[in-house]
Protein: Protein YjdM
Amino acid sequence: MSNLPNCPKCNSEYTYEDGSLFVCPECAHEWNLESGNENSEDTKIIKDANGNILNDGDTVTVIKDLKVKGSSSSIKIGTKVKNIRLVDGDHDIDCKIDGFGAMSLKSEFVKKI
Structure:
């Protein structure tokens, strides 16, 4: 029997090689040993306009006037947004903005303070 590693997610011993990847038939997890960090697939790194890594709970400022769909007003440049939450999707920041309420923003239009 070969010396293949157990699955990092479910610890199954029934893993197999598929090209350069290891695959778990029980939970369908795929990983690469050269990556070093098995959880790198699960966590997406979200960066601001300057390339700084964003985390949940960070405070950011808006770097451009943003039109709000369905509203006649816009979010002005320099607006401070506290306690952001990172989510998957095109608009990857969920937050509350004073005067607007709950919003989703794109990380490319904010910078970390």
